[in-house]
Amino acid sequence: MTDAAKKILVDTADLGAVDLSRFQAAMEQQSRQWRVQLGQQLASAVAAMTPVFPRISIPPMVELDRVSKVLGQQLVELTGFNDRLRRAFEPVIEPLTAAFAFDDLWRDQWRDLFTSINRLVRDLYPENIREALPRLRELQMLEVLLIDEGIPLMWVPGSQTVNALLDAPDAAARRRLIGQRWKGIVADCEVVLETVDHPRLQEGRDFALGAVAALRDGHTAAAQALAANLLDSMLQKHFDNATRVELTRNDFKAKGIKFKLDEYRVSMALTFAPVWHAHAKYFPKNGDPIPRVFGRHPSAHGVSRMQYSRVNTVYALMLVTSVIKFFDVEMS
Question: For the chain, first and last CA: distance in Å?
Answer without folding.
Answer: 48
